[in-house]
Amino acid sequence: MYRRPTGTEDLLPNQQPAWRFVVSTAEDTAARFGYGRIDTPTFEETALFVRGVGEGTDLIEQETYTFEDRGGSKLTLRSEGTAPAMRAYLQDGLQSAPTPVRLYYVTSIFRYDRPQRGRLREHHQFGSEAIGEADGAMDVETISMLASFYRNVGLRSVALQLNSIGDALCRPAYVELLKRYYRPHLDEVCTNCRVRFEKNPLRLLDCKEDRCQPIIAQAPKPAEHLCSGCRDHFERVQRLLTALGQPFTLNDRLVRGLGYYTRTVYEFYGTREGAQAALGGGGRYDGLIEELGGKSTPAVGFGCGLERVLLTLREEGHETMAAPGIDAYVCHVGSEAQSWALQVAGRLRDHGLRVVTTPSDRRVPAQLRQAEHYRARYALIVGEEEARTHTLSLRSMATREERRNLSLESVTQLLLSSVPDPQ
Ligand code: HAM
Question: Which CATH fold topology does 328-417 show?
Answer without folding.
Answer: Rossmann fold (3.40.50)
